[in-house]
Amino acid sequence: MKKNSNFFFSEEEKQALKQDIIDSAESVKFKERNTRIKRFLGYAAVACVIGIIATVFYSRIPDANASDIERFVQQSKEEINFKSDQVTILLEENQINLSEDSTEVAYSSKGDQLTLGNGKSIQQKVNSKNKAVFNTIIVPYGKRGKLTLSDGTKVWLNSGSRLVYPLVFSKDKREVYLQGEAIFDVAHNKEKAFKVLSDNQEISVLGTVFNVSVYPGDDAQQTVLKEGSVLVTYKEEKKQLKMAPGDFFEYNTASKKIATRKVDPDVYFSWRDGELTLNRTDLGSIVKKLSRYYNVEIAIKNEDLQNETFSGKLDLKETLEDVLLTIRNTSEFQYEYKNNDTLVINR
Fold first, then answer.
1. What CA–CA distance (Å, rounded) separates 88 from 240?
2. Domain that holds residue 97
3. Among 180, 192, 98, which Cα is nearest to 152's?
4. pLDDT tens, 95-129?
5. Between 283-294 and 320-328, two packed helices, what is the crossing angle to 10 degrees?
6. 16-31 b/e with 16+ CB inside 10 Å = b?
7. What is the mean pLDDT of residues 63-83?
8. How far apart are CA 180 and CA 45, in angstroms?
9. Final residue of a domain: which of 234, 267, 300?
10. What DSSP assignment string belongs to 206-236?
11. What is the pTM of this model?
12. Strands 174-185 and 194-197, bridge-based pairing
């Protein structure tokens, strides 16, 4: 019986058909895989957006355990302009720009009157909607400021600093929030401690004189006690340490380590009088202080030079160039301005 060739395939045709079936199956798998990937990426994108929204939303919710001033600070995290040419006080609804002859300001004992250095007075309500009213003083780079709070506490603020404080303190506590560096001469009140809050630490005193430096850009947060007694709480480490006059406490925000030693407090108070006292201080640290004090970007291009130490006094009432010449008397280096705004130091 003769077979009909129309119903049978040659070996070559069988192989070609088999390959077509395999290719077709692979194509279906590829399309399904692409569909799964696209679906996964879509879910991931939605989850990412939700995560971002949740982060922004919850970051704006104040900590339920925070005090009134901490909640105020958390809700007013706007970028602070430390490059301004004037000391500024932010009031509840407006702001005051202080001229050179009025950077010293004082509040009345009731907190309802603010007197500027030039004699001008400003009236304020100490409560708004049954809540305490907070003011913020911003001292830009190249400037200094002095503030007398309603309880009589005096505060000297260094360049690049911000202090948040109530017009009048509550019946049971005195709290301020500091970013930067300040000297506090705290009015004594044995019934009501005075607290200086910052992002990583809390300082509690009854009446004393101390210097605290808590610049956000610095790894080290420093507290130096001149008179009285201070209790320092390091929030992340959950540690409390008591200071005696002459104590120096330093908290490294990177390593989370606390270092303590005895020092001459006047070294850390000299900036208030227009001097910078050095005691084996490395040039990198000196330059950081000078950059804030004179409002000039300064960069050191030599690592060995950056670690070189110096001792003595610098007169900050002189120009920056004169101060650098004083330092250069004991070290070999050159400096020049780049792009008209950055001073570069090199060998």
1. 34
2. 68-267
3. 192
4. 999 987 778 999 999 999 999 988 899 999 998 87
5. 170
6. eeeeeeeeeeeeeeee
7. 80
8. 39
9. 267
10. SS-EEEEEE-TT-SEEEEEEEES-EEEEETT
11. 0.80
12. parallel
